[in-house]
Q: What sequence folds into this?
């Protein structure tokens, strides 16, 4: 495969690649979905570093579910990643507010 013309993996291929430890799957997950999470967090009181942390945590959640076979995807992978990231970020904001009072 030519380096400049990478294959675009489907959601199923990304998940299978992630389960198998594929660097290409991880690279595509970052390229495709990190900008969305970055936008979510930077428009909701967060920094780029916060977004990186949340995205990393999201991928860990996804990886663990894929590896254990407990992931039941009833939506696009993009939607799943967004909702997990959003939940993790809201949880983090709630904890920060608790300690700032």
A:
């Amino acid at each position: 495969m030519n380096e400049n013309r990478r294959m675009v993996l489907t959601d199923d291929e990304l998940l299978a690649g992630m389960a198998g430890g594929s660097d290409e799957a991880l690279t595509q997950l970052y390229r495709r979905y990190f900008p969305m999470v970055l936008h979510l967090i930077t428009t909701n009181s967060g920094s780029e570093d916060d977004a990186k942390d949340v995205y990393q945590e999201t991928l860990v959640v996804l990886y663990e579910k894929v590896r254990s076979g407990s992931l039941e995807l009833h939506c696009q992978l993009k939607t799943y990643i967004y909702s997990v990231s959003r939940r993790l970020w809201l949880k983090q904001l709630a904890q920060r507010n608790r300690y700032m009072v």
